[in-house]
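Q: Entry one of two.
A:
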Amino acid sequence: MGLADKGLFSEGEAQGEEALAQTGRRTTRLDMPPFTIGTEQGRHQWRQLLLALEQRIVLADAYPGMLADDLCDYLFARSTGHIGSLMTLVNRACQRAQRTGIERLTKELLDQVKDDAAAEQARHELEYAFSAGKATSRPTPVRGSR
């Protein structure tokens, strides 16, 4: 996001302004690169994230596999693997599911939810790759697992 380059973390650090450097002293920068699906490990990490999210979704008709099995490629395309985009999308979709009484996440419901501009710009290429069978976010199944 370039926040350091824009001076967000160093405001007030000019000589004589050290006492004003509040943001840099109250914030810890953490790098969170986007999830990738180009390797088996990346696909496994994506699945683990979706499984963890499923456990925290409070919808009356939520079910195991709702995200990790039924919506994994769709959610990757919509979020382009970025955790912030994914969390915003899922959060907004859960709110819509509750308001409308659907009480589960579906592609049709998610299609009605707006996502951030960066994710929306990048999503069409990913959607094409998934629909053409050129990409998948699903890890190769291990015998005896879900």
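Q: Entry two of two.
A:
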Amino acid sequence: MAIPQDYSQGIDPERALKYGVQRVRSERAELVEGVIEDAGADWDHEHARHELRTQLSEVVDVLGCLMGSGDLDLPGSLNWYVPDIAVVPEELARDAGSLVPDQTLLIVEVTSESNAETDRVVKRKRYAEYGAPLYLLVDRLDKTVTLFAGPGRLGYTQVDGPHPFGTPVRLPEPFGIDLDTSEL
């Protein structure tokens, strides 16, 4: 992307966009490949997030982690994500304005009609590139769940799924639980 002459001195476009997305008057806004997007969710979307949070809550507490939708920065890129769910060690979350994907234990994205391809393709690639160890994709349009593991610069090396809703999905250690996907 060419920077206009007036802005070529002293302004970092990545920093400016990330500053701007944090000040959008929306509860959930994110930056995806340089585009500011509203990350709002409908009630069906919230239902899926609630089901997963309920199942994860006990093990998250035992691990000394927090679970939420905090900001994830992807330094060196025009991306600033607000995942549907991220599980992070509590000590990293304290006083952190944002974290990076490799500081998470698990990231969950739940698709909507407006963002399905972003979650399926762009975020999967970026989360792997930035070292998120586990990425759970809940695809409400296809009614499937897929777990990605083994992050690397070229993507995830391990894929478990897609599994149709209703199929238990095993989250590996440190979680060591089977997710019930029947109510997603």
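A: Comment on entry two: The longest strand covers residues 158-164. Residues 1-5 have pLDDT under 50 and may be disordered.
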